[in-house]
Amino acid sequence: MSLLRKNSTEEQLKAKSGILRTDWDIDEIEALFNLPFIDLVFKAQSIHRQNFDPNSVQISTLLSIKTGACPEDCSYCSQSAGNDTSLEREKLLALDKVIVAAKEAKDSGVTRFCMGAAWRNPTDKSLDNVIEMIEGVKELGLETCVTLGMLDGQQAQRLKKAGLNYYNHNLDTSPEFYGTVITTRTYQDRLDTIQHVQDAGINVCAGGILGMGETRHDRARLLQELANLSQHPDSVPINDLVQVQGTPLDGIDRLDSFEFIRTIAVARILMPKSYVRLSAGRVEMNDEMQSLCFLSGANSIFYGERLLTTDNPIENHDDVLIAKLGMEKEKPAFAN
Ligand code: SAM
Ligand code: DTB
Ligand code: SF4
How far, in Å, CA of 38 to CA of 36, rounded? Predict the structure, then answer.
């Protein structure tokens, strides 16, 4: 019996019993990547519609609450102090500014508001300020997400107590390729933060970036690390590298679109109940490519003309695309 056949029988049995696998072998994942494109997309879409409404897309808006001057050396990032980008630095935003932005997001139909800070990790004092922001955004009836860098266990507990819904912390790439992208924090540091978030009972948002010069094996290893966490992340952002002038990765060859779509499809198959977020890089994707990503199981996006520091499609463009596809923006899943 071929590897894929055997696996698909095992997968069917596990899917029937409702078990989410956290024991994926790299060979199984690479075999999925190697499927004919149509077979892979069909498999991903079949699994997708067993678990989600295939015509629904969850939308979140991002806001950078502290911009630039980051001590980390992530070679893709506009915000690293070591990268000579033209980004304007900004201290932590005042609470009222954050609330104004969250209200605007709510009025545009968004269900989740994500706040990002260019920190290696928050200090306990800066966490006090972020907690005020989380409380204020929740009062508007929005779900909250923050991405603040590394957390210790106590900080994760404090965020949980404040009612935070999601914490975003990405693995970024495979453990093997990681050292060529970032040297100032380890892969294990990232896994530890994700564990603290999970232990605190906060929904985990963890994914990575494609198109940084990694191989297909690295993409498979990234997905393996995510799918074999003790619990699948609730949300899996797949970012296509946004090339920023002044960063070491500016000018690198762009990843082939079909390879990006394949990665989305494999993420959907490995983590059938997680939201797979088509994240950064959508301005460089045409509507047809984004539609193939949805067909392959992506079911959430960032909405609004800005990501953290770079451009995202304007709202009207996304609204037109969502309408053309007969899709709908997901309604809030629960009251806060
Ligand atoms: N400083 C925090 C951290 O790194 O954990 C939070 C903010 S950071 C900007 C959040 C994530 O955005 C990164 O982990 C990375 O995966 C993604 N990201 C940053 N710059 C990007 C770029 N140029 N293209 C694609 N994704 C990017
Ligand atoms: C994630 O995985 N992608 C978002 C969110 N999590 C915080 C950030 C993308 C940032 C893209 C580059 C920028 O705008 O600075
Ligand atoms: Fe700093 Fe986050 Fe950018 Fe890395 S990705 S340089 S930690 S803001």
Answer: 6
Reported as a single tens digit per residue, the pLDDT across 55-103 is 999 999 999 999 988 999 999 999 998 888 888 888 999 999 999 999 9
Amino acid letter, 38:
I
Q: Which of 184, 257, 250, 260 is closest to 222 using CA atoms?
A: 260
Looking from the CA of residue 244, the nearest atom of ligand 2 is: 12
**Token pair belonging to 277:** 């977020």
Quick check: pTM over 0.90? yes
Considering only CA atoms, which residue is closest to atom 1 of ligand 2?
A: 237
Locate 122 and state its tokens: 């928050």
Q: Give the DSSP H or E segment for 195.
A: helix 187-200
Q: What is the DSSP string of 69-80?
A: -BSS--TT-TTB
Whether residue 57 contacts residue 294, with contact meaning beta carbons closer than 8 Å, is answered with: yes
Ligand 2 lined by 242 (C-beta under 6 Å) = yes
Q: Considering the candidates 77, 112, 268, 282, report the single residue annotated as catalytic.
A: 77
- Our answer to whether residue 277 is catalytic in this structure is yes
- Ligand of minimum distance to the alpha carbon of 150: 1
The one-letter code for the residue type at 218 is: D
